[in-house]
Amino acid sequence: MDLISLVVALIVVGVILGLINAYIPMESRIKQILNGVVIISVVLWLLNAFGLLGVLPRELVSLVVVLIVVGLLLSLVNTYIPMDSRIKQILNVIVIIAVILWLLSVFGIISGLPKMQLGKF
């Protein structure tokens, strides 16, 4: 992809995101999440366009994307699903423990857990 196409694509994404932020009514928290997702997507797209993403192991990229998605989902649940704060704390602790155990299993630090495969792990 040539430089002009990259610049045009970035301008289009910026204009669309600016219009969404300015004219579509939604809570500021949702706008922050939307902006964060778009920025992360654009950074990953740029890294891929310049060939820098190919340098990183695909498993590492998948791992980071899974962690971002889990964090985003947990944030959305905490923000928008009405439930007692104690239940939210318990849910957060369970998700964090599950993610830590999954990471330890993925990196081979612990074994004996059932194999949950995401991508090429």
Describe how the helices and strands are arranged.
Layout: H1 3-23, H2 28-49, H3 58-80, H4 85-106
Helix pairs in contact: 1-2, 3-4
Number of strands: 0
- What's the number of helices? 4
Order of helices and strands: HHHH
Distance between the termini: 30 Å
Report the sheet with the most strands, covering strand number, pairing sense and barrel closure.
none
Give helix % range.
over 70%
Estimated structural class:
mainly alpha
Give start-end ranges of low-pLDDT stretches. Answer: none
What form results from the Cα inertia axes? flat
The average pLDDT is 84
* Radius of gyration (Å): 18 Å
**Beta-strand percentage?**
under 5%
In words, what does this structure look like?
By secondary structure, the chain is mostly helical. Helix content is 73%, strand content 0%. The chain is built from 4 helices and no strands. Helix 1 (3-23) packs antiparallel against helix 2 and helix 3 packs antiparallel against helix 4 (85-106). It is flat and about 50 Å long. The mean pLDDT is 84.
Compact summary:
This protein is an all-alpha fold. 73% of the residues lie in helices and 0% in strands.
Could you list some keywords that capture this structure?
0% strand, flat
